[in-house]
Amino acid sequence: MTNTPRLSFSHLFSRAGLQWLLRALERRSVAVTLVALALCLVFATFVVLSGGMSFGHYAVVEPLVLVVNGLVLLLLLLAMGVRGWPILVEYRKGLAGTRLHVRLVTLFGIVAVAPTVVVGVFATLFFHYGIQIWFSDRVNTALNEALQASRGYLQEHNANIRTDAFSMSNYIMSAQNELAASGMELLQDHDALSQMLDSQATIRGLTEALVYDPITNRVVAAGGLMSRTGYLQDLPPPAATLMARSNDVAILDSPDERTVRAVVELSQTPTLMLVITRLVDPSILDHMHRTEKVVADYKHLNRNKAKIQLTFVMIFVLVALLVLAVAALIGFALANQIARPLGLLSMAARRVSEGDLRVHVPETDRDDEVASLSRAFNRMTEELDSQRSELMLAYGQINERRRFTEAVLSGVSAGVIGLDVEQRIELPNRAASVLLQTNLADATGERLATRVPEFAGLLEEITLSPETVFTREIQIGHATSQRTLLVRVGAELRGTVTEGYVMTFDDITALQQAQRKAAWADVARRIAHEIKNPLTPIQLAAERLKRRFLKEITSDPDTFAQCADTIVRQVGDIGRMVDEFSAFARMPQPVMKDENLSRIAQEVLILQRNAHHEISYHLDLPQHGPWVRCDRRLISQALINLLQNSADAIAMLPRQADASGQEVAPKGEVWVRIAQEEETIAIVVADNGVGLPEDDRNRLAEPYVTHKAKGTGLGLAIVKKIMEDHGGTVRLEDRAGEKGTVATLVLPVKDDHGA
């Protein structure tokens, strides 16, 4: 037989003693002993606190019972902590099964405590309403109303004497005014005033009525029962007199509450005060005192009721804590048997969610739901592992096909857009974003008609007839930079169901312009060949007719000469026009040399100044250079054409009236400057003419497109052809904020020389 070590307080509070206590609390027998002891303490506590036994001679009994209860509850809580702390640590670490463990313990506690709480609540309510029979609200209300009624008598008594004071004061002053009309002063006749006070006191049931001077504190006149017996009360205190003189009535209760007095100002000249006194019924005062005593006793008993209820609540709390502790201890024992297998399943499921499909849980031979769940879980992971291998293989093949498709689409110069059945953007290639000048990758999921409104009509057509492939030429872009797209759209059909759409398009603007230019060049060659040959004989014949027959015509020689000159002049105009056609049709190849661009511009401007004296030319040219590699003759021709267009645009301005009222042409101005950047050199020609037309702006550089009344439309076409041969461009823009045109020739910098 082993020796049990002695347990002292110092040993208990040492570290070794604490470890010994915790190990002891882990034993089931210790927990059962604590539960039994707690049941006994609950009964003892009820007996002591409810007064079932008299311990009046032992004042230490009640504190001792409470201390023992606290100690037992502390031991129960420690026992719960010993079993719950490991679970709490695992719960904080997030280990599998700990949440279920905690929920099971909580469930046992709720199942055990809920009925106790319900029964306790009903018992508390029953106990509460039982006490309310004696301490009901109706009794409390009746007592309070009786007290208020008795106090209301005094208040009513004060209100009545206030009214009598005002009434009596008004009566005396009315009598004073009537007697003053006949030459008598009532306030100076003390005997008459005393008689009036005596009669008014008798009529109004007053015991005393007197008039005094507040300055000298001297009684002027008195009436009533007290004055007849020769016994007068003291005059009111100065505070009451001061209050009465401020147009108010001062009410004074005697210390024994047997009488009540009222003070009011009677007159200001001379200063006199009126005091009246009335007795209070002694039986009413006795009744009020008895009522106050009953109410005080009732409140004292009501306070004791709260103490009884508190005792009952303390007993209920002890029972509830005991039941909760027992339920928690039982829950800890049963939770291990239920939560451990489920915790292993939870841990395995987490590993599956992380991608480990080869995990297995231990299987037992038990024939219950948890064992069946473990076996089913293992079969599921095996199937998932097999299916994932197949899916990864299929995904690899699909991914290879997708990369191949994307590579093909990215290498195609035409724009390709895949649309879903709602015509939302799904798969655009890079060329589509470039051609539409918008980032279609960021617009994935957006309706194509919203992003590119020009396609809306074509998309409506394919929606109505999905079995047809539609091809359209669509104009897109701003009026100054409009482009033509050749668009083709078809539907992806599975049977009769539309699953999506595929749209392809390409920019054919340059192709159309090249086709039109080639066609016009062919036309120009034909015109030059067919028309130029007969022009010379016509001109020579007209000149010969004029020289030979002008002297022989006597009827109207001037008309004959004028007609002959007109034929010669018009033939010359047609000849120059044919020369322009021939020049456009046979544009020579440029001979590239290093040329000084500023010198070329100055030479051209000399000719333009001589041809157009009415126009002011402003130059902004570098002093030296710049040097570019170009064909001097062709660049000069391009610049001459631009300056001629500026002169024509200025000539088209409407005439204005001067100071004398005559219409004159507006002053024309042309600005020429050369701007050099890192990789380009620009020749900028600006004028204050009529500006660019609103329509067909993007076609101004095409052959035979002009907005002038007299023009072939070949000037800008020749300029564009020259710039293309030099690898440059021509831009036409409106002057910023003013009327006029800005034409810019942009040449690439291929070689840089000094002057």
In short:
This protein has 755 residues and is of the alpha+beta class.
Task: Explain this structure.
The chain has helices at 9-12, 15-25, 28-49, 61-93, 98-134, 137-181, 190-204, 225-229, 238-245, 282-353, 369-411, 430-436, 448-451, 456-464, 509-549, 557-585, 597-611, 632-651, 715-725; strands at residues 208-213, 218-223, 250-253, 259-268, 271-279, 415-419, 425-428, 470-476, 483-494, 497-507, 593-596, 615-620, 627-630, 656-657, 663-664, 668-676, 680-687, 729-734, 741-748. Among the domains are: 22-135 and 298-349, no CATH class; 183-280, 2-Layer Sandwich (Beta-Lactamase), CATH 3.30.450.190; 399-504, Beta-Lactamase (2-Layer Sandwich); 587-652 and 667-748, Histidine kinase-like ATPase, C-terminal domain (Heat Shock Protein 90, 2-Layer Sandwich), CATH 3.30.565.10. The strands form five sheets. The protein has a five-stranded antiparallel beta sheet. A five-stranded antiparallel beta sheet has the order 7-6-10-9-8. The chain has a five-stranded mixed beta sheet with strand order 12-16-17-19-18, covered by helices on one side. The chain starts with 8 loop residues before the first helix and ends in a 7-residue tail after the last strand. With 755 residues, it is an alpha+beta fold. The relative contact order is 0.05. The chain contains 19 helices and 19 strands. Helix 3 runs antiparallel to helix 10 (282-353), helix 4 packs antiparallel against helix 5 (98-134) and helix 6 packs across helix 10. 57% of the residues lie in helices and 16% in strands. Its EC number is 2.7.13.3. It is a multi-pass membrane protein. Residues 336-389 form the HAMP domain. The chain crosses the membrane at residues 30-52, 64-85, 105-129, 310-335. Residues 526-751 form the Histidine kinase domain.
